[in-house]
Write a structure and sequence with these properties.
29% helix; Translation Initiation Factor IF3; 2 helices; alpha+beta; 4 strands; single chain; 75 residues; four-stranded mixed β-sheet
């Protein structure tokens, strides 16, 4: 399944990666999927809170070396 939007938050401290994710999803229709890449460990908590507060769905998360990888579907 291809991601609709890629958000590169690597090297940024939280909450900047999640703010970039929010900006990327703003104005997009429900169902769009974003791939977020980030290196700050705090992003794990922040993405969970973002999804819960914004009605998004966390489709999956993993690690790729130093990067945390999240797939988020806009609700």
């Amino acid at each position: 399944m291809a991601d609709d939007i890629e958000v590169d938050g690597r090297g940024l401290l939280c909450p900047l990666p999640v703010l970039k994710l929010a900006k990327a999803l703003a104005g997009e229709p429900p169902g769009r999927v974003a791939l977020l890449l980030a290196t700050d460990p705090a992003v794990v908590r922040d993405v969970d809170v973002f999804c819960r507060d914004q009605g998004c769905v966390l489709l999956g998360s993993s690690r790729d070396g130093a990067a945390y990888v999240f797939r988020v579907r806009k609700g």
